[in-house]
Design brief:
Structural class: mainly beta
Helix content: under 10%
Number of helices: 2
Radius of gyration: 20 Å
Largest sheet: 6 strands, antiparallel
Strand content: 25-35%
Mean pLDDT: 93
Length: about 160
């Protein structure tokens, strides 16, 4: 009987997970029978979760609480920006909490933002990650593990069934 594979750098992990916030609301989960596959040690998942999974083996389940600092970061006050209402089409209905993609005027690079506040002639946008400042509560379970292929290690991510991306 070979030594059982444990989660460490260079192992492809399949992960069944449910993610809740402090209030218990489920905001993300892997699909039934479709675990998330990732290559451990390559920063593909949030650092706090990756760290907590080290050393687990097939069949293990664990509850992991990841503080904001090890997930999507604290809320950055510098990531709020006030823009003129005229930046948006007149017929666009703006509401607080609405997510939108804003393109940089110079580079045309898209940024995800949400509307933090609507004033008379101005809109305050929040460019923080939607989960910034949140403590994340994961319930995870490990259906399978395998050693990564050399190609996967070279690319730094798991390829999963179906070959190349």
């Amino acid at each position: 009987m070979s030594e059982q594979l444990k989660i460490k750098d260079g192992v492809v992990v399949s992960l069944d997970y449910t993610l809740r916030l402090d209030d218990g609301e489920v905001i993300d989960a892997s699909e039934e029978n479709k675990p998330l596959e990732y290559l451990h040690g390559y920063g593909q998942i949030i650092p706090g979760l990756e760290k907590a999974l080290s050393g687990l083996t097939v069949g293990d389940s664990k509850k992991v609480v990841v503080p904001a600092a090890e997930a999507y970061g604290e809320v950055d006050m510098d990531a709020f920006e006030i823009v003129p209402r005229s930046m948006f089409p007149d017929d666009m209905e703006l509401e607080e909490g609405l997510s939108l993609t804003v393109r940089d005027a110079e580079t045309n690079e898209p940024f995800d933002a949400s509307i933090a506040e609507i004033r008379e002639n101005e809109v305050m946008l929040d460019f923080n990650h939607p989960l910034a400042g949140e403590t994340l509560h994961f319930e995870v379970n490990i259906p399978t593990l395998r050693a990564a292929t050399e190609e996967e290690l070279a690319h730094g991510h798991a390829h999963g069934p179906g070959g190349h991306h």
